């Protein structure tokens, strides 16, 4: 009936109100408790601070001790800010110079290697193309691509790791060590960061040394 439905609805709303009150009061209690804890924590800290101040200001502590304590606190602050300790001072003073010297030496070394490879490859490609070896090779291996590679070397648009690999190949040619040169050439093909057509040019030029130039030199 309508009356019983209305009574049930009022009963539900009443229960909801009671529940809401309970939740609200428990929430307030927890807030109060948290507030009390925070306040008590702050009070403890203040008490400790006051005690320390009293100890410092106490006439029992000598002026000398006060001065030492003050110095100690200053040192701790400076250490926290990273401004103290002799060793770090020395590191900061001398380390960058050492690093700069090593870096400059490394760059000079790469620069010299690049120049020597440039001269070596220039001479090799002149003989290679004059000997018409390029006719039976891949279309990527042509004099225009070879010139592009040499320009890359000249302008240093080449990674230092590739310069190191090329210098190793050149050294093995000068040593006339064909077996090690073959292994180094495989390593170069696997590790080179050059564009594929440049890698092919390098491979062809050094392969030319292995097949045509060094065997003739060795026979002599």
TrEMBL record:
InterPro entries given in the database record: ERICH1
Sections of the chain in a coiled coil: none
Compositional bias per record (Polar residues), positions renumbered to this chain: 25-57
Residues covered by region (Disordered): 1-80
Basic residues biased stretches: 13-24, 62-76
The name this protein goes by in its record: ERIC1 protein
Provenance organism: Dromas ardeola
Name of the gene encoding the protein in the UniProt record: Erich1
